[in-house]
Structure to design on (239 residues):
């Protein structure tokens, strides 16, 4: 009996230590809801009934500016084979280039961004920047800002829709492809580090400028999403 109690104590202590470690490294956390396979049909609108189960992130801000950010909403779901995500962006004037000149065109446009990293060293992380038409700039990077634009996500699907108030992006990434990048499986105890961002471009008489919107305030002097403090933690929600 004493041995069993000791084992339970050790397990509880280990679980508590894990929770403390993750809470001390996560600026914010997100709980991923599991859904049945084939519940999502990508159309950019995220209107499948399964999306009603998703937790919503809406507390995006402008960390480097004392003003109200245009609204951004994010949610995600997971099944046995894919991670699904949806961005809804309120935008009074969507910046979208008519002439596509390769994926670098995205840096001149309004866009939403999602980064994945296996840890907070950022020795290897992967970025998606998606414009309002669902066109992508994706790359692998190492700290600090050592980008490889020749790298691309595999098994990525996207759908984009212009809305009355802005634009909507719905996408999926296969879990198998994330595993090949050494991104750990989503689970209830250990986090997957994810950054959620948005570039909101504004035209002024002088030039085009960007307002940098983030889920988490990285607490840097200048706008910068490529630092560990810009990443939050994704966990698998308990059933």
């Amino acid at each position: 009996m004493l041995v069993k109690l000791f084992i339970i104590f050790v397990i509880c202590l280990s679980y508590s230590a894990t929770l403390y470690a993750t809470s001390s490294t996560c600026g914010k956390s997100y709980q991923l809801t599991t859904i049945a396979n084939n519940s999502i049909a990508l159309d950019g609108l995220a209107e499948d009934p399964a999306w009603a189960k998703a937790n919503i992130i809406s507390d995006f801000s402008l960390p480097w500016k004392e003003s109200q950010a245009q609204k951004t909403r994010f949610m995600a779901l997971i099944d046995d084979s894919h991670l699904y995500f949806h961005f809804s962006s309120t935008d009074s004037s969507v910046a979208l280039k008519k002439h596509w000149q390769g994926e670098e065109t995205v840096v001149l446009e309004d866009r939403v961004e999602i980064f994945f990293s296996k840890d907070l060293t950022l020795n290897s992380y992967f970025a998606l920047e998606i414009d309002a038409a669902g066109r992508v700039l994706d790359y692998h990077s190492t700290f600090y800002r050592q980008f490889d634009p020749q790298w691309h996500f595999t098994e990525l699907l996207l759908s984009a829709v212009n809305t009355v108030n802005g634009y909507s992006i719905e996408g999926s990434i296969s879990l198998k492809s994330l595993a090949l990048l050494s991104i750990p499986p989503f689970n209830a105890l250990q986090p997957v580090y994810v950054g959620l961002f948005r570039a909101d471009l504004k035209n002024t008489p002088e030039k085009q400028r960007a307002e940098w919107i983030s889920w988490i305030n990285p607490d840097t002097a200048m706008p910068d999403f490529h630092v560990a403090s810009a990443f939050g933690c994704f966990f698998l929600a308990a059933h």
About this structure: The chain has two helices and 13 strands. Residues 28-236 form a domain with the Immunoglobulin-like fold (CATH 2.60.40.1190). The longest helix spans residues 2-25. Residues 28 and 232 are 5 Å apart (CA to CA).
